[in-house]
Design goal:
Helices cover 33% and strands 35% of the residues. It is of the alpha+beta class. It has one domain. It has a four-stranded antiparallel beta sheet. A hairpin with a 2-residue loop joins strand 2 and strand 3. It is globular. It starts with 5 loop residues before the first strand and ends in a 7-residue tail after the last strand.
């Protein structure tokens, strides 16, 4: 897999635990059990073909970065997130 065309999304270490949990649930999805039946919501990573690299570090295709930023902005969570471009081309 080439790193060109990907963006790292890093959650701030200083973010409160509740905020980190909210971001993790948005990115990775959640599972809820009601009366013994499990229901799973897909996370944003699965929808955009991203990868969770470590706790609070995600890699998503640059073409889907705008969608991720939009979703986190809706929830007022962009304050706690840093976007790092992995593009090595000289165009930027």
């Amino acid at each position: 897999m080439s790193v060109q065309g990907y963006v790292l999304i890093k959650v701030s270490e200083k973010a409160p635990k509740e905020v980190k949990t909210r971001i993790r649930k948005i990115m990775r999805g959640t599972t809820v059990t009601i009366k013994g039946k499990g229901y799973r919501s897909r996370g944003l990573l699965e929808e955009v073909n991203g990868i969770a690299l470590a706790g609070g570090v995600y890699m998503v295709p640059s073409s889907a970065a705008e969608r991720v930023v939009e979703k986190l902005s809706e929830k007022s969570l962009m304050v706690y997130v840093e976007i790092i471009s992995l593009c090595t081309c000289p165009c930027r």
